[in-house]
Amino acid sequence: MIKVMNSIYLFLSIYLSFTNFLAQSAPENAIISSLPGFSGIIPSKHYAGYVTLDVDHGKKLFYYYVLSERDPSKDPVVLWLNGGPGCSSFDGFVFEHGPFKFEKTGGKRMPKLHLNPYAWNKISNMIFLDSPVGVGMSYSNTRTDYITSDTKTASDSHKFLLEWFKIYPEYLSNPFFIAGESFAGIYIPTLCDQVIKGLDADDKPTLNFKGYIIGNGVCDDVFDGNAFVPFGRGMGLISEKMFQDVNKECKGTFYRPPSLKCEMKLDFVDQHFDGLNIYNILSKCFHDKSMIKHENTKLPMSFRKLGETDTPFPVRTRMFGRAWPFKAQVKPGYVPSWPELLNNTILLNNTRGVPCQDRNVAKIWLNKKEVRKAIHAAPISEAGEWEPCTGRLRYHHNTGSMIKYHTKIIDRGYHALIFSGDHDLCVPYTGTKAWVQSLGYKVIEEWRSWKVDGQVAGYLRAYENNLTFLTVKGSGHTVPEYKPKEALAFYSR
């Protein structure tokens, strides 16, 4: 009996020692002990730093890793990617589902950070990745590394994941998902394809990949580009006569006008979209002090209230850079950066910029010397100033429509959740709904409502092979920002 007890004791000692080793295996130099602007106790551990992709080039991708507040040893690990192309995933961290809500304090003073009750790390471990290299805090000492493409970005991100999990091996057994929004509708399917190819090739370490999540993501120039006019009709932004006229002249092809008359009709439609916040037609449109400020006067107040949010701080008064610009579908070839687009955007008072937008709180915080030191980011002199969207990339879209990628991934049985804020005019849900349906999978749960606190929060349709399409009622382009409670609710399911 004594020998048995000694054996059990020895086993437990070895097991506990191994468990403790795993718990401590995350790099000490990546731990974030405190954050400027936050005076409370951080509920879970945070890590941040660089993964070097090419030592000779000095090519590095920056990540910020937030552990789950529930059970980090078992909860999913989720890689989050924002869009652009060329926009930082700190956008999601600061304005959407990150662990904090940021409060402006005026001027360039340090913002105040408050805990976010709807943070996605309530139930999952979140990796916020600045990708491709040149975005956000990621940088290279070799400028040619800033010339990139869909396939190069996917390859680099896959290499990042393999190296990252070597640094954090204790999370290899956790379910792993890839999530994001907007232009990440390109990043995610191409990265998933790389991950699956790596699994088939027995790349090490072995990722426990389970699926992906895309919100208001671009996918296909035909489906996305043809969605604007029908969406405007459905939302009452244009009259039925106007829709019939433009539809007749354009023969249902709005993304590539077949004639000059069609183009003129589309210009007339565009005039009726003027003054709207295209990223959420229910929201006000703001400009900075040098620009005009106006409201969505075409929408009655009762209709606009549908877009109200219960986030503890006001939804930001900007949408810079997370979405492909209105009526500029993702087409093959060179993709202009947001700064390039800004130079070609004339607002109503003849100033240049993206309408309805103000991004200062993130820029102020992430360019503070003490913040960069706290999160182990390189100084401005080395990595450059943090911008929500960089102008130093030369990005080429070289993979075409994402439909073939979705089919390849879903055919393998990986989970796919495609969601849309239903009042986004930038990537309208009608186009997304159409391309999801075009995949041809059998419907196993017909169109129905889903609820939060007993209230309808949106609608969904479920397909075979673990595919779900879901809408969020009253939300715009960035669902976790506009409808944080509802976003956490569907994310939790």
Automatic annotation (TrEMBL):
Q: Does the keyword Protease apply?
A: yes
| Signal peptide positions on this chain | 1-25
Alphabetical UniProt keywords: Carboxypeptidase, Disulfide bond, Glycoprotein, Hydrolase, Protease, Signal
Task: Kindly give the InterPro entries that the UniProt entry links to this protein.
Answer: AB_hydrolase_fold, Peptidase_S10, Ser_caboxypep_his_AS
Q: Where in the cell is it found?
A: Secreted
What biological process terms from GO does the record include? Answer: proteolysis; secondary metabolic process
Highest rank taxon of the organism:
Eukaryota
Q: Which GO terms describe its cellular component?
A: extracellular region
The answer on whether this UniProt entry bears the keyword Cell inner membrane reads: no
User: Which is one GO molecular function term here?
Assistant: serine-type carboxypeptidase activity
Q: Which family does it belong to?
A: Belongs to the peptidase S10 family.
Listed name of the protein: Carboxypeptidase
Q: Which organism is it from?
A: Lactuca saligna
